[in-house]
């Protein structure tokens, strides 16, 4: 009886795959093994996608700054004027938006790019997801260097309001990752989605108050911005970093609840969809 309890077993039935329950030691060994695997995966992905290029980590710092310069030029041409606060607001918005758009864009081919791992029946699916989030957070940390330097050079020093960046960033990560879960499932079955994703992302950016303030938008179109989560993210980032203001807590609470529920549903769909991936990968 004791040997039966300490031995892992797997049984395939008509209703699916059932496995034996793990004891404490088995859980401990599995967690340690998963952490080691995750560490190797992150280092490999870091080298392959970011630091294998000639500019390496420097490109991750330059990327949001170059986009900031482009959008600031557009705003200056259209409005006839541009000040340093507008430049800083664009720099902050672009940096957090690029983090979001990178997660969305890469999620479509997430499982196609990891077909070798998925082919291993017992490989934990959650490791692929954790590696995906960890690498994007690491790359985001590099891209944040430029805007922080700009803020410091212009006299915006860290204060208590900067702490709002932590919950705002975590909520944005949850929101973006949740969308990425659904896109990763759809993108596995339909390859064409990666080719058309740029267009809705571009529209989403331009209807987000990154280059301009919401109060500049005509009243008749304000409802679009009220439904756009990045109206609250960008306003929260700008308020914390530039204006000593807190975010819209009720709106963020709704986003947290909605994203959490959608994530739970998405993960369940992903677990069920995994058994059909091999027909399309």
Give me the secondary-structure topology.
Blueprint: H1 2-6, E1 10-13, E2 16-19, H2 24-49, H3 57-79, H4 84-107, H5 115-118, H6 125-143, H7 145-153, H8 165-189, H9 193-196, H10 198-206, H11 222-226, H12 229-243, H13 249-273
Antiparallel strand pairs: 1-2
What is the spatial order of strands in the main beta sheet?
A: 1-2
Mean pLDDT over all positions: 81
Q: Compute the number of helices.
A: 13
Distance from first to last alpha carbon: 42 Å
- Tell me the number of strands: 2
The geometry reads as: globular
> Helix share of residues?
55-70%
The description of the largest β-sheet is: 2 strands, antiparallel
N to C succession of SSEs: HEEHHHHHHHHHHHH
Please identify the structural class as seen in this structure.
Answer: mainly alpha
The proportion of strand residues reads under 5%
- The low-pLDDT segments are 1-5
Q: What is the CA-atom radius of gyration, in angstroms?
A: 22 Å
